[in-house]
Task: inverse folding
């Protein structure tokens, strides 16, 4: 009987593997085909390379001035609207912030609602969402719309009917009691859905999980820190700047068991290289914000990961900001470009604009660091990133003592640090144009004062430990943002267009030689490749969404969600400009620490953003609307 069972088992297992492989190939082929057709916008960032570039050219630099509003759609939600809609064939899929409604709109019938899905979620999730109740979009794969809900449930909906196909719990709890939340857009790779987690301000140990697209079962899970069995780092084969990471590198750079509340959340954007079968993403800040409480490099927070999409095992890692002292999360998008000429050699690269103010160009197969340069000249917390492979400082930013919150110590206010905690750029994604070879980047031009203080950890409670105040970069144009063109091969700004507030929207480039972006006041703007403004239109609320384009019935359209909020707009979205609300926020976050008079309390609420962006209330108000633009008929 034992022989018989073994004989039967082997062909059954082989058949199951063949079936799974065929399913994975088919699911991926469908999505790749849809995304390769410029008429669709089938992935949250347009393609696996995160270029946010479209080959559509009907709207071009000569006629973009004629754009008109074609139709609008109210989402019914008044919080920050990040991300953007998907367009697949004749259907547009629109998402909202909490409560994470998903709408399917019929493009053949004036945006008629084909179906609406609104998940039931515990409202206790709302207060543990650090920087507004945002959601950055849904994903598509195998006839399913994948929603990463605020309560950490990952739900697959039938794209035609909106009915739930499967729903799984990504976090440990769905009631906010562990401080975990879901904010980012999932990515579908072959037969898997890859999802991360938010909650670094609550001591959540970050992870990335891959779920099988067919039924939601777990395929693999990899933490940002912890023993090798948790991080899926091979001590001998996984490299950091070309050298093996060594045994348990995710615990050895922490004091005791602090890694268990280590942060390193994974709420940003994900890229994928099909040839290398590697998925790329970044991890966020170590917990707490008080660096004095967590000695060591705190690996692998603030890190770029390159993981095998099938197994989750990391091929290489690179920590950009060891022992972070400023909350410079490393989660921003990785943009993949083939054949870039860097220092006289061709490389298939990964380009990353980090919150720390440095733009990195790396060989994405090996993790070799090729370029690391400031993309805002006001960045002052570090002089440079050491580029000498023979140095023990190789790859590390050279910190300026004056701006080191670690060296200055607890209960000391370090002033004039640039950039602010929200970075020279936060999650708002840049775009790459293959026509120019340049990156077009929405940026923040903001500095801060930062005072760390001691805090204690309680699961589900804020674990921040710093008071922050933000303001426009001094001795500059007076505004809080720039929209720039960047040469990633040279590490140079080509041009910079100043803006009154941070540019918090995702940019879009097209073959029509136009680049689009949105502003916090609510303008959608179009510029040419030299940065000259060609068009602008003010939408009903501030834009923190990502601009997309699609074609329907032979006509090209531009779509954007407006609805002020996010970290920069939290004063409006969270009502924190009201002194009573600001005081209540501090009461929940600061563990009893006094925050000064009413003005100081408002100014430092929202992790420092409320005071810095208080003037935004003079230009826009809450809203939630999709606006679709097109050329005159």
Result:
């Amino acid at each position: 009987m034992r022989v018989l069972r073994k004989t039967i088992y082997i062909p059954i297992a082989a058949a199951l593997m063949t079936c799974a492989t065929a399913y994975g190939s088919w699911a991926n082929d469908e999505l790749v085909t849809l995304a390769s057709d410029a008429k669709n916008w089938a992935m949250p960032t347009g393609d696996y390379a995160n270029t946010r570039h479209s080959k559509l050219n009907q709207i071009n630099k000569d006629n973009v001035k004629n754009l008109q509003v074609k139709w609008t759609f109210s989402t019914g939600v008044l919080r920050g609207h990040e991300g953007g809609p998907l367009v697949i064939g004749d259907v547009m899929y629109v998402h909202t912030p909490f409560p994470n409604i998903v709408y399917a709109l019929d493009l053949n019938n004036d945006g008629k609602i084909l179906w609406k899905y609104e998940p039931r979620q515990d409202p206790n999730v709302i207060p543990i969402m650090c920087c507004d109740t945002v959601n950055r979009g849904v994903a598509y794969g195998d006839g399913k719309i994948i929603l990463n809900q605020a309560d950490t449930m990952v739900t697959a909906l039938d794209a035609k009917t909106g009915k739930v196909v499967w729903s799984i719990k990504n976090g440990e709890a769905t009631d906010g009691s562990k401080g975990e939340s879901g904010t980012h857009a999932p990515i579908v790779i072959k037969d898997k859905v890859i999802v991360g987690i938010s909650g670094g301000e609550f001591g959540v140990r970050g992870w990335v999980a891959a779920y099988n697209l067919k039924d939601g079962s777990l395929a693999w899970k990899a933490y940002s820190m912890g023993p090798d069995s948790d991080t899926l780092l091979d001590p001998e084969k996984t490299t950091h700047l070309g050298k093996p990471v060594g045994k348990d590198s995710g615990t050895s750079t922490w004091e005791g068991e602090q890694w268990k509340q280590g942060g390193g959340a994974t709420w940003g954007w994900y890229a994928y290289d099909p040839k290398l079968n590697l998925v790329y993403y970044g991890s966020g800040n170590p917990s707490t914000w008080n660096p004095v409480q967590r000695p060591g490099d705190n690996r692998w927070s603030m890190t770029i990961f390159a993981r095998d999409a099938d197994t989750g095992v990391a091929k290489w890692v690179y920590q950009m900001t060891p022992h972070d002292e400023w909350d410079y999360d490393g989660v921003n998008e990785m943009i993949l470009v083939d054949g870039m000429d860097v220092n006289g050699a061709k490389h298939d690269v990964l380009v990353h604009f980090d919150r720390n103010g440095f733009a990195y160009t790396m060989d994405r197969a090996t993790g070799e660091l090729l370029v690391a340069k400031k993309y805002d000249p006001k960045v002052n917390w570090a002089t440079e990133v050491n580029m000498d492979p023979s140095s023990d400082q190789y790859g590390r930013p050279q910190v300026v003592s004056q701006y080191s919150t670690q060296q200055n110590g607890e209960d000391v206010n370090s002033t004039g640090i640039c950039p602010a905690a929200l970075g020279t750029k936060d999650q708002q994604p840049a775009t790459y144009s293959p026509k120019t070879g340049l990156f077009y980047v929405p940026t923040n031009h903001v500095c801060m004062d930062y005072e760390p203080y001691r805090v204690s950890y309680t699961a589900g409670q804020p674990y921040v430990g710093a008071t922050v105040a933000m303001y426009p970069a001094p001795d500059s144009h007076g505004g809080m943002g720039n929209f720039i063109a960047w040469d990633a091969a040279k590490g140079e700004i080509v041009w910079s267009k100043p803006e009154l507030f941070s540019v918090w929207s995702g940019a879009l480039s097209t073959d029509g030689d136009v680049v689009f972006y949105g502003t916090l006041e609510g303008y959608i703007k179009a510029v040419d490749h030299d940065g000259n403004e060609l068009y602008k239109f003010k939408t009903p609320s501030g834009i923190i969404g990502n601009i997309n384009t699609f074609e329907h019935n032979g006509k090209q359209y531009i779509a954007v969600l407006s609805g002020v909020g996010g970290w920069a707009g939290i004063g409006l979205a969270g009502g924190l400009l009201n002194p009573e609300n600001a005081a209540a926020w501090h009461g929940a976050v600061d563990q009893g620490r006094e925050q000064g008079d009413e003005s100081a309390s408002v100014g430092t609420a929202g992790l420092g953003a409320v005071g810095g962006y208080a003037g935004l209330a003079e230009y826009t108000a809450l809203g939630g609307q999709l606006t679709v633009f097109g050329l005159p008929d």
Observations:
- The first helix runs from residue 2 to 36.
- The first strand starts at residue 53 and ends at 54.
